[in-house]
Amino acid sequence: MNETIPGLSQTGGDRSTVLEHQERRLQEQLSKIRHKIMVMSGKGGVGKSSVAVNLAIGLSLQDFMVGLLDVDLHGPNVPKMLGLRRGRLQRRPDGRIGAITYSPNLKFLSVEPLLPQEDSAVIWRGPLKISAIRQFIADIDWGKLDYLIIDAPPGTGDEPLTVAKTIPDAYALLVTTPQEVSLIDVRKSYNFCRKVKMRILGLVENMSGFICPHCGKEVDLFKRGGGEKLAEELGIRFLGRIPVDPRVVAAGDAGKPVIAAYPESKTAEAFEELVRNVVAATEELYRDVEEGRYMRIAVPVEGPVVTDLEKADLFAIYDIEKGQVKVKDVARKPEDTALDIWLKEQVVTHLIAPAVPQEMKDRLQNVGVRLVEGIHPKIKADMAIQDYLAGILK
Fold first, then answer.
1. Is the dihedral of CA 9, 24, 310, 386 positive or negative?
2. Superfamily in which the 294-389 domain is placed by CATH
3. Of the residues 48, 55, 121, 297, which has the fewest C-beta atoms closer than 10 A?
């Protein structure tokens, strides 16, 4: 199968060399992006792309540098909603490719501009989809961004899984409608995030209430409040509700998202509130990691006790929030995966181990894993965690 995407650069050489080079480019690109947010939903038809596009534009209007990546490969809607269906990639003098510019603060990429015709069907299996998404990040010069908003297709298939594995520090923003069927499906997205260890930024209730096209007033024509109730039940942030507004559809079809086309409308106000809540939530999550209020700690174990790093293929992994163990899991590291890469995929922030070779120390530092050495083998892993939280281990 041809695993190249038309219009994107390729690196010659054998497959392992290509993948290694691509991984370096991936890490280089991602290191320039402060916050990554994947907008996802359990089912289609909930207005997920409208939320992603208006969120990206709203952030750009607040003077943030924003990238918008459409990984809905089979049904890309972002170019249409931005009015740039045949936008062109910009090849730089140094040979690199820049994303498509929408405004000075917003650039985007979608598979549609790369297709020979607008209505070309994308008939790709998993490996090619995975390759495409990795190329969208590695081969495109996004530059330095405050936010990368990723519009994922509905469900929990190849695309969101690839984003979760490729960008392990991405947050998930869940979109639902107040209807029970959507609330049931968004739980699947919630469980997906827990399974792949993706932190959840919060939940948005879209199509909440109805904006009358004649008087502009909000009418409780449809259900509302189900998303907020579910967020409270799941223990995640409720980021806001967006009403049903016929202008959202009209503006999207015209390539003029409602937050920019109708800035004085109640719907634009709702999106502006969402933008403020997203900014506050991302900064809070970022500070939690930087200041140690949130940690994911890995410990090499044999049974319940700590073992030497060289001998370990099992790791106890603890999620710590505000000094308390919230989740404990045990995971096996695949034999063909380097320890530093695997820990990054597990979104580990700290490694507690008896001793670590200098080469591995350097590799762990490169992927942002903090090291705690000196723990004695044979101590119970749970006790090691308690000693660290108590300040006994440094």
1. negative
2. Dinitrogenase iron-molybdenum cofactor biosynthesis domain (3.30.420.130)
3. 121
